């Protein structure tokens, strides 16, 4: 209570008045009345002290209630005070909390509606794509059986590649939409980085073999973090895919991970040409493509459209992690490939 400067000044002023009364009584020869004067002063100050203490207790309770609301409690006690300005303040805060609760409920309903809509869109898009895939495969098999249809078979192969690209694009866009809408449910559990990295690399194993690019995992034993294993594997898979697309034949992509006192740190490096300096600030921007991607794109061989790394960043950010891109360099300062650094920081207890 006395930490409040206004209260402290009022207390000092009261004590000064009591002391002045005592000095005046002594000066006029009324020393016999001095104890009674002091007793009267204490009696007069007691209700003031009691009332001030009660007000500070009420303010402390109100502060605790607000702190509870900030930490997820959705209720506030409106009946703990009687009339007075503090009761009015608490009433207004209660109204504010109820309004925020209503807004949060409305946003949750909208988020759920959007999630359901995205799921329906996903189903509606994937159904015809799946039918197209099956039809294309049947036609290709029929042409293979007939023979002397090499040109037609090659065209069908191109259609299949384009179709796979569209399916991957649609799937990634839907994930981004769910992430933007806050409709992506993320787990909060202990994730073993070694297992997670293998999950991320498994779907790309054939692609790495066909591209003649080696994938090396160098992960410290017991390295882990708190997050979502499946979605982190999705993010890491997008980074690996990006590195694979920019690494020449005979090259290598390396994933290293270790823990320190602050964070679990994951690094992905390739042996490609690296990232152009003008592209570095934009690599995680949605739909941004570097000069090399734009130059290599064609109708037959489409390259990425700049959403894989954006999705990876969104998934990592959603778990309170960080990701940054740079170029690896040798001792002479020459670029030896692209580098992506991911960190999941430990909670401070």
TrEMBL record:
PROSITE patterns: HIS_KIN, PROKAR_LIPOPROTEIN. It catalyses: ATP + protein L-histidine = ADP + protein N-phospho-L-histidine. Keywords: Coiled coil, Kinase, Membrane, Phosphoprotein, Signal, Transferase, Transmembrane, Transmembrane helix, Two-component regulatory system. Residues 1-24 form the signal peptide. It is found in: Cell membrane. It comes from [Collinsella] massiliensis. It holds the Pfam family HisKA. This is histidine kinase. It is an enzyme of class 2 (transferase).
């Amino acid at each position: 209570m006395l930490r409040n400067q206004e209260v402290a000044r009022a207390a000092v002023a009261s004590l000064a008045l009591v002391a002045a009364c005592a000095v005046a009584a002594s000066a006029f020869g009324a020393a016999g009345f001095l104890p009674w004067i002091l007793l009267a002063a204490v009696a007069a100050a007691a209700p003031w002290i009691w009332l001030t203490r009660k007000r500070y207790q009420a303010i402390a309770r109100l502060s605790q209630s607000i702190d509870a609301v900030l930490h997820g409690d959705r209720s506030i006690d409106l009946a703990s005070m009687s009339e007075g300005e503090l009761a009015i303040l608490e009433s207004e805060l209660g109204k504010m909390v109820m309004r925020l609760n209503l807004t949060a409920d409305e946003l949750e309903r909208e988020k759920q509606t959007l999630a359901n809509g995205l799921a329906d869109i996903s189903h509606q898009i994937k159904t015809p794509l799946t039918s197209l895939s099956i039809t294309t495969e049947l036609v290709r098999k029929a042409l293979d059986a007939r023979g002397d249809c090499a040109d037609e078979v090659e065209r069908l192969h191109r259609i299949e590649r384009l179709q796979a690209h569209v399916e991957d694009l649609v799937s990634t866009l839907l994930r981004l939409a769910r992430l933007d809408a806050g409709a992506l449910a993320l787990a909060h559990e202990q994730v073993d980085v070694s297992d997670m990295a293998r999950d991320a690399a498994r779907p790309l194993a054939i692609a790495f073999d066909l591209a003649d690019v080696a994938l090396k995992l160098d992960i410290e034993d017991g390295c882990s973090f708190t997050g979502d294993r499946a979605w982190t594997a999705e993010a890491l898979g997008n980074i690996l895919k990006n590195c694979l697309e920019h690494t020449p034949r005979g090259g290598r992509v390396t994933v290293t991970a270790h823990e320190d006192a602050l964070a679990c740190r994951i690094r992905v490096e390739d042996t490609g040409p690296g990232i152009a300096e003008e592209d570095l600030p934009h690599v995680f921007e949605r739909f941004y493509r570097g000069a090399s991607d734009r130059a290599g794109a064609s109708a037959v061989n489409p390259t990425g459209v700049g959403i894989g790394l954006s999705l990876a960043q969104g998934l990592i950010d959603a778990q309170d992690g960080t990701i940054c891109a740079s170029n690896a360099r040798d001792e002479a300062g020459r670029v030896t490939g692209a580098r992506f650094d991911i960190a999941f920081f430990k909670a401070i207890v």
